[in-house]
Amino acid sequence: MEQAATVQQPKNLLAVGALLLGAVAIATSALFVKVSEAGPVATAFWRVFLALPLLWAWSMLEQRERHSTSFVSDKRLLIAAGLFFAGDLAVWHWSIMLTSIANSTLLANLAPIFVMLAAWLLFRHQLSAKFLAGLATALTGMVVLIGGDFTLSGKELIGDALGVVTAVFYAGYQLTVTRLRARVATSTIMAWSGLFTAIVLLPIALLSGERMLPVTDIGWLKLIGLALISQVAGQSLIAYAMAHLPATFSSVGLLFQPVMAAVFAWILLGEAVSALQLVGGITVLIGIRIVHRAETAR
Question: Are 32 and 263 in contact (CB under 8 A)?
Answer without folding.
Answer: no
